[in-house]
Design a protein that fits this description.
Layout: H1 2-23, E1 30-31, E2 50-52, E3 59-61, E4 64-66, E5 69-70, E6 73-74, E7 81-87, E8 93-95, E9 100-103, E10 109-118, E11 124-135, H2 139-144, E12 146-150, H3 162-172, H4 178-187, E13 192-198, H5 222-232, E14 236-241, H6 260-274, E15 278-281, H7 300-310, E16 315-318, E17 336-340, E18 363-369, H8 388-400, E19 404-408, H9 423-436, E20 444-445, E21 452-453, E22 457-459, E23 461-462, E24 468-472, E25 483-484, E26 489-491, E27 495-502, E28 512-518, H10 538-541, E29 553-560, E30 565-573, E31 581-588, E32 594-601, E33 612-622, E34 627-633, E35 642-643, E36 654-662, E37 677-678, E38 681-686, E39 701-705, E40 742-761, E41 769-775, E42 782-787, E43 794-813, E44 826-832
Parallel strand pairs: 2-11, 12-13, 12-19, 13-14, 14-15, 15-16, 17-18, 18-19, 21-28
Antiparallel strand pairs: 1-6, 3-4, 5-9, 7-10, 8-9, 10-11, 20-23, 22-26, 24-25, 24-27, 27-28, 29-34, 29-36, 30-33, 30-38, 31-32, 31-34, 35-37, 39-40, 40-43, 40-44, 41-42, 41-43
Length: 833
């Protein structure tokens, strides 16, 4: 019977093999890839999640990124062929036959699909998988709207040093409680906490396992306590991290090899594995901006893969420091753009963020101080919180541009998260934040702003079911009094659409703001028709074109004259062979605020008789006296006409000031300043302002000078000379480097019959001793007014008619810090006949 049984088993085995062979299955062939949901457990085999962030999908390992994810199998006979047997990938992604998943995810969700692999002999295997398409990495930070930033550690006064200092620090922590810190964030209306976990004194607030020369680390795992406490209460935790460890110059910790970089690589990985949600990397990692800092202190090419591979959803913000807010470094890996406020007690120290023009979806963060210092001051006389109304006003301004507001205030060495001196201000700020916390869902569009449409379109806006959408197409910011969206919006010409949604019980959403380009027959040329287009003017063909391999924007800065203009078209000089689509950015010079983005398609636009291709833009009002930057992004393929602006044409309604270069992300820094822009041609309508006296100084050239005529720069890098002649009392001219200084205004020609000058000083920055002078030639000067012991903020000076081109306002006092007046700040300088 045993032999019969063995014989029967053999028959069954033979039948089974035949059955499998017929169906094409092979018991040795199997798919080894696992679903995205298993990534934290099996990162080596799991599908790396996609992020709906407007950039190409990448999968990461600690070795670096790949622009695809490779499905894997084993067994059978390679090579393998892959296909989707059932289900679907996230919208925008595709699977090729080699098993690579690539593309750009465009819709969030967990997508179930069945992968099929077939080997070279026809055997196949299938496996059900799930691919996660997550929101953009920093969406949670963007949605947080408000958070708290605490600088605290052994550097908190009284400052301590070395291992003995760490021991003393841990003993003096008598009021630190991680749960209370997390609860305090909630009580203040916040959803994210940033804490100095590893600062420039070299001390890490956890018992790290990465070896270093001095082993400057606490025994208590303060970092983990905070991470766990925040997560328990639904708060996100961001670790402040300083790449340099040299704040205490006589006690500098490094890795065993003597470098910061090796130590930092280990510390970052520890924090990722410990569960931080993000990193706030301080400015010594921004070596593109600051000389003297070593790239290898924080080697991004190794650091980012460590973050991305060990936790795909961890975010990082690269702080660019004071006056560099909005500069985008390490793009496109950046997740948060930072604006850092200063330590002055004045409102000017409170940063206001700008909308970003980058393609990737990012969060914008602004960090401002409640007091005038990042760290606790032992002397109570040195602690002075800013007025609550000032802080709330600043919060509102930042929320208007969609920034997440991070409020920083210092805590004492004992770890008391709610110091008595700040309690009243914090309570009032919390009351405002809680009433206005949250966003309604931002509207989404059915059309793309990266496509040029050849005919009119209908734009569909969608948002959450209970929300109402309000929109504008006239350039104004939408409010709840704007037009209510009831159905598709007809777009028959290039238009800028801005929209908000409002859900019951929630504040309005962030502003949706996109420009949709319609190239109709009147402003469109097919590629085949190019040869029949009018020949470019000689000026267009005589130029030796230049390519821009780094993707910089090239353009110019202009100042509008005494009357506003409505800009309708931007022209780029045509050069043979160009066929790319180029982004246009128009920003205000005074504050770098982007006011319009559009595009110019060299492959489709006709060449005008003047040799330019003109891109239609949504009509844009440029104000009288204001300066603007108009730039077009160039590339390594198309050539542009370089211009050094040493000899540029003049126009009656605007003045070309100088060349301009912007980074590929549309910001002023970092760029390689070769002093080459490009001369753009503008089509516009001149707007008339009836009944107004003509201010002869409006929009004219202005300079900051020392009283010995040496050139000066603007104070705080923002108080430009142009601000004194822009017709705007909200901007100010103030020289940096010297208290006594001179404003020089050049009217460009001698103007006859001038008989009135008006100077408006700033409320808290005014001259107590000054004189006003005029000259026809910048050589012979006539004094119009000399005043001492001045306390007036408005000087309205009338005099007998004169013919003059140049004017000076020369301040003699204040002459040092602490003097009455604080320093001459000129809001506006005006001249009239």
């Amino acid at each position: 019977m045993k032999r019969i049984s063995e014989w029967m088993s053999g028959i069954l085995f033979t039948v089974l093999v035949v059955s499998l062979s017929v169906s094409g299955q092979n018991p040795g062939l199997q798919i080894t890839t696992t679903s995205s949901s298993e990534y934290s457990k099996s990162p080596k085999t799991s599908i790396y999640p996609a992020f709906v962030d407007n950039i190409i999908y990448q999968s990461w390992t600690e070795a670096g990124p790949s622009p695809f994810f490779q499905l894997t199998a084993e067994g059978g006979t390679p090579p393998y062929t892959w296909a989707i047997a059932d289900g679907e990938l996230p919208k925008g992604l595709r699977l090729d036959k080699t098993g690579k998943i690539q593309g750009m995810a465009s819709k969030e969700g967990n997508y179930a699909f069945t992968a099929r692999v077939t080997d070279s002999k026809g055997a196949s295997a299938t496996k059900p998988l799930v691919f996660e398409a997550a929101p953009f990495r920093s969406k949670w930070f963007s949605d947080a709207k408000f958070g708290i930033f605490i600088q605290w550690g052994i550097f908190t006064p009284p400052s301590l040093k070395g291992k003995d200092g760490i021991a003393q620090f841990e003993k003096r922590i008598t009021k630190f409680n991680a749960d209370e810190w997390a609860q305090q964030v909630i009580d203040l209306g916040g959803k994210v906490l940033t804490v100095t976990i590893n600062t420039g004194d070299g001390v890490r607030l956890w018992p790290s396992t990465t070896p270093s020369k001095l082993e400057l680390k606490t025994k208590r795992n303060i970092a983990k306590e905070l991470i766990d406490a925040c997560h328990k209460k639904g708060i996100k935790f961001v670790a402040y991290f300083a790449p340099d460890k040299g704040w205490n110059k006589d006690i500098v910790d490094t890795g065993l090899d003597g470098t910061y970089g090796t130590l930092n690589l280990g510390l970052i990985k520890e924090l990722v594995l410990m569960g931080v949600d993000g990193f706030w990397i301080d400015m010594t990692s921004a070596t593109e901006l600051y000389q003297g800092f070593d790239y290898n202190w924080f080697p991004w090419d190794k650091m980012i893969p460590i973050m991305r591979a060990n936790n795909p959803k961890v975010i990082f913000a690269n702080n660019t420091g004071l006056y560099n807010g909005g500069t985008v470094l390490q793009y496109p890996n950046t997740d948060v753009i930072i604006y850092e406020g200063g330590t002055s007690p004045h409102e000017t120290a409170l940063e206001v963020a700008k909308p970003t023009t980058v393609k990737k979806k990012l969060a914008i963060e602004v960090d401002n101080l409640l007091d005038n210092t990042w760290s606790w001051r032992e002397d109570p006389k040195l602690r002075s919180p800013k007025p609550v109304d000032m802080m709330i006003r600043n919060i509102k301004k930042n929320w208007e541009v969609g920034a997440t507001y991070i409020l920083s205030y210092p805590v004492p060495a004992n770890g008391d998260i709610f110091p008595e001196i700040y309690q009243e201000e914090l309570k009032q700020i919390a009351s405002f934040v809680k009433k206005n916390q949250g966003w309604s869902e931002t509207p989404r569009a059915s059309l793309s702003d990266t496509v040029d449409y050849d005919k009119g379109q209908k734009l569909v806006l969608t948002t959450s079911a209970r929300s109402k959408i309000y929109y504008t197409i006239d350039g104004n910011r939408p409010t709840t009094t704007s037009k209510l969206y009831k159905g598709p919006i007809p777009i028959n010409k290039t238009a800028r659409v801005q929209a908000i949604s409002v859900e019951p019980g929630k504040p309005a959403s962030k502003v949706f703001d996109q420009t949709f380009t319609i190239l109709t027959r009147s402003n469109r040329m097919t590629a085949n028709a190019r040869s029949a287009a009018p020949a470019p003017a000689p000026a267009a063909t005589d130029v030796a074109g230049k390519t821009e391999p780094k993707g910089f924007y090239r353009g110019m800065r202009i100042t509008v004259g005494s009357m506003p203009i409505r800009l309708t078209d931007v022209g780029r000089k045509y050069l043979q062979g160009n066929n790319g689509r180029h982004s246009i950015i128009i920003t205000r010079f005074a504050d770098d605020h982007p006011i319009l983005t559009a595009s110019l398609n060299t492959a489709l636009l006709p060449v005008a008789d003047d040799g330019y291709q003109y891109a239609p833009i949504p009509p844009l009002l440029l104000e009288a006296g204001k300066s603007y930057i108009i730039s077009i992004q160039e590339n390594a393929d198309d050539k542009f006409a370089p211009e050094d602006f040493k000899n540029v044409p003049s126009f009656p309604d605007y003045r070309i000031v100088e060349y301009n270069i912007l980074s590929p992300q549309g910001t002023k820094r970092p760029i390689v300043d070769d002093k080459i822009g490009q001369l753009l041609s503008l089509k516009y309508q001149k707007m008339k302002v009836s009944g107004a006296k003509v201010n002869l100084a409006l929009g004219k050239q202005a300079y900051l000078r020392a009283n010995n005529e040496a050139a000066l720069g603007p104070s705080s890098h923002i108080f430009f000379a142009e601000n004194a002649v822009d017709g705007d009392l909200a901007t100010m001219a103030l020289a940096g480097g010297q208290y006594p200084w001179t404003l020089l205004v050049d009217l460009s020609k001698v103007e006859p019959g001038i008989k009135q000058a008006k100077i408006t000083f700033a409320k808290t920055s005014y001259s107590t001793e000054f004189k006003v002078m005029a000259s026809p030639d910048n050589k012979t000067w006539t004094t119009l007014l000399e005043k001492k012991n001045n306390s007036d903020r408005v000087i309205d000076l009338k005099f007998d008619p004169i013919d003059a081109r140049f004017f000076k306002v020369r301040s003699f006092k204040p002459e040092k810090q602490g003097d009455v007046g604080g320093g001459m700040g000129i809001l506006e300088f005006e001249l009239y006949r």
